[in-house]
């Protein structure tokens, strides 16, 4: 008798993503199937980053993963692949500080979906939605002196899956806002590799795909793993407008002075 399959559902809201680099040890591309052990319907290049949406153990004990595109602008389900051909990180385990909207505002960043807090003067209209950030003039001037454009800074500080310095592989300082749905962590500060960006496709569902181009990308900005194909990197900024930030919760796991230092890369 066949063993029953085990199905594990994973959330698709950005709050506990399993991000993986494709790493097929036997082939430069990985077969994508319409079901565990089913017909091959696609191929994914090694180093491509995907999200795991479900895992399933088949009757022979092999583990399969249903994967989708990393970018929120391309959140299609690709299909099923061998789980052992993926090298993964659980973003829910990344260290991050918990900050209130009030504390973040004092440091120069305000979420676009904050309703009761005034937006900062540097707008991020390049990402026309409620999930980005606005930035203080002082903070923007600090970045502008380093060569950042308004667009690059908005995409980097307000983007999804910006977790590592692509030049060095070092993890970035991340923060998490309080609230029932606020997405995943975001960076408090970004290095010079993000001072220039390339938009890699058209907007889809309010998201714009992009990649940093201010340095040679030696590490993936989402997983921190070494890469040799920077052209496969694709992040996204944006998302449908909506609420979720809890502005009444003023708790924070970091002092305002320390938060200002982190926002300024110290």
How would you characterize this protein structure?
The chain is of the alpha+beta class and 266 residues long. The protein has two domains: 6-92, SH3 Domains (SH3 type barrels, Roll), CATH 2.30.30.40; 94-263, no CATH class. Helices cover 12% and strands 28% of the residues. The chain has four helices and 17 strands. The chain has helices spanning 101-107, 137-144, 150-158, 256-263, and strands at 6-9, 18-22, 29-33, 40-45, 49-57, 63-69, 77-82, 86-90, 97-98, 109-111, 133-135, 159-160, 174-176, 186-187, 197-199, 207-212, 235-238. Strands 1, 2, 5, 6, 7 and 8 form a six-stranded antiparallel beta sheet that branches. It has a four-stranded antiparallel beta sheet with strand order 12-17-16-15. A hairpin with a 7-residue loop joins β6 (63-69) and β7. α1 (101-107) crosses α4. The protein is globular, with a radius of gyration of 19 Å.
Considering the chains and any ligands shown, give keywords for the structure:
266 residues; alpha+beta; SH3 type barrels; 2 domains; six-stranded antiparallel β-sheet; four-stranded antiparallel β-sheet; globular; disordered N terminus
Short recap of the structure:
By secondary structure, the chain is α+β, with helices and mostly antiparallel strands. Helix content is 12%, strand content 28%. The protein has 2 domains: 6-92, SH3 type barrels (Roll); 94-263, no CATH class.
